[in-house]
Design brief:
The complex is a heterodimer of chains A (333) and B (102).
Chain A (H helix, E strand, L loop, with lengths): L1 H6 L5 E5 L23 H13 L4 E5 L9 H10 L3 E6 L6 H10 L3 E5 L5 H7 L5 H15 L2 E7 L9 H9 L4 E5 L6 H4 L1 H4 L3 H17 L5 E3 L25 E4 L4 E3 L9 E2 L5 H7 L1 H7 L13 H4 L4 H8 L12
Parallel strand pairs in A: 1-2, 1-8, 2-3, 3-4, 4-5, 5-6, 6-7
Antiparallel strand pairs in A: 8-9, 9-10
Helix pairs in contact in A: 3-4, 4-6
Chain B lengths: L2 E3 L4 E4 L1 H13 L8 E5 L2 E5 L1 H9 L6 H9 L6 H18 L2 E3 L1
Antiparallel strand pairs in B: 1-5, 2-3, 3-4
Helix pairs in contact in B: 3-4
The complex binds iron/sulfur cluster (2 copies).
One iron/sulfur cluster binds next to loops of chain A.
Chain lengths: 333, 102
């Protein structure tokens, strides 16, 4: 692992929450409930300059809901003019035909839409917003019509783990380029609602065995997972360059006030993008150093998958056990 | 035929890492150490040193012979061996869709 980190002198991706404001209040959201100041559009433009100067190629806008940012299109146009590759994740509610054309013109490389159940009523209840399923699928349609490449994100939880193939059906219907099946993160409302929605380790095991077999035998659709614990399942691709959690190893997260955290699910501020040098933080942060060089503990010490899994999701271990080195609580080993 | 990179494959040259590898190469074998990062549908790949040099030269201005010509000046190896290594590498990347003619 040290090898790849020593090799990348700056991150490849910045996950950037420009605002935590949202028109929804989802049951699993990491950012709802956070009250935080926001930097001005002028400052955002200077941050874009910094990111570009550091040769970081990818920006992904998250949030909050990026479509609530009044200067989103302008910011994106500017970032694209600086050769950055810009994408975002949206709940799709505000993404009508005109907005889709605006996103295309601004130069978005991909736009991701979140769908948490293929059953409209279940999606709407989980996201606390009536009509949101219909709007999300309409958004996929509008983006396709406007010629914007799309991705789809679904957070796996009690409401959908037995029915993940229905996400594939939706993804195929709207020509989605990549389907992300995200694991349930226990941060923010995800922490408060974990007992109701998070799977048990046994259920995660069942889900990953089935989902990985499905992925490996259905090459037409590109399905991605971001859960290191999967390394313990037969058929896992062991060629990935980055092992374990990728946050702090290829990516960083920026909060609306410019604070930098290793990822959106880890509440440790390691600097500020307005005042600090990003390369210096990337190469010298003590917290990142610890995340990149974890020490196996408990069952991880004798686990054959440690080299690939590296103790699982660092954010989850920290949120639920208080120590990044502890085995990921989702782990069934 | 001239060889070009597929524009959908993003790549970054890790310039500082290349400097470090170049220094290492002065007195040891370090050709497994690369400095070109590729991203194909969100997955990160790293090319080895020779692969990285070939990748950089596939900018649409050279054919196979042009690439061999440049690299034979840089690597102290038999030209036939070098040519066959380069050919293999280009063929593999063409199969992956990362390189193309034109
Ligand atoms: S998950 Fe996304 S859409 Fe839902 S409340 Fe949070 S920021 Fe809004
Ligand atoms: S025991 Fe540790 S290393 Fe092994 S799969 Fe579980 S979390 Fe990963």
């Amino acid at each position: 692992m040290g090898k790849v980190v020593a090799y990348l002198k700056t991150p490849l991706t910045i996950n950037w929450s420009l605002s935590y404001s949202c028109n929804f209040s989802c049951s699993h959201c990491y950012s709802r409930g956070s009250n935080i100041s926001e930097v001005t559009t002028d400052e955002i433009m200077r941050v874009v300059d910094k990111i570009s100067a550091a040769k970081i190629p990818f920006i992904n806008f998250g949030g909050g809901e990026p479509l609530l940012i009044k200067d989103l299109l302008e910011i994106t146009k500017y970032a694209v003019s600086k050769n950055l590759n810009v994408s975002m994740n949206s709940n799709g509610f505000l993404l009508d035909k005109n907005m889709a054309i605006g996103l295309k013109d601004a130069g978005f490389a991909t736009v991701g839409i979140s769908i948490d159940s293929a059953v409209p009523e279940i999606h709407d209840t989980f996201r606390n917003m009536k009509g949101s399923f219909e709007k999300a699928t309409a958004a996929l349609q509008n983006l396709r019509d406007a010629g914007v490449k799309t991705t789809m994100s679904s957070v796996i939880s009690k409401i959908n783990h037995k029915d993940f193939q229905s996400f594939v059906t939706i993804a195929e219907k709207y020509d989605v380029s990549q389907l992300f099946l995200h694991n349930f993160k226990c941060t923010g409302k995800g922490f408060d609602n974990r007992e109701e929605f998070d799977l048990s380790p046994e259920e995660w095991k069942e889900f990953y065995i089935e989902a990985l077999a499905y992925k490996n035998s259905n090459k037409d659709i590109d399905i991605s997972f971001d859960d290191p614990v999967m390394a313990h399942v037969d058929g896992f691709d062991r060629n990935a360059l980055v092992k374990g959690s990728t946050c702090g190893k290829v990516s960083l997260h920026i909060r609306p006030n410019g604070d930098i955290t290793p990822c959106g699910f880890i509440d440790i501020v390691i600097g500020n993008i307005i005042t600090d040098d990003i390369k210096d933080i990337w190469n010298n942060s003590e917290v990142l150093g610890k995340m990149r060089n974890k020490t196996p503990q408990g069952k991880c010490t004798s686990c054959a998958s440690y080299e690939e899994c590296v103790g699982g999701c660092t954010a989850r271990s920290l949120a639920l056990t208080g120590d990044i080195n502890n085995p990921d609580p989702h782990c069934w080993v | 035929m001239k060889i070009t990179r597929n524009e959908d494959i993003f790549f970054r040259k890790e310039a500082e890492t290349k400097k470090e590898v170049d220094e290492l190469l002065q007195d040891e074998e370090a050709d497994d150490k690369g400095y070109i990062t590729l991203i194909d549908s969100g997955t990160m790949h790293q090319l080895n040193y020779l692969g990285g040099r070939i990748w950089e030269l596939c900018d649409g201005s050279r054919n196979l012979f042009g690439i061999v010509d440049v690299l034979s000046g840089e690597f102290d190896v038999d030209e036939e061996d070098l040519k066959s290594d380069i050919e293999d590498f280009i063929e593999e990347l063409m199969q992956r869709g990362w390189l193309q003619y034109g």
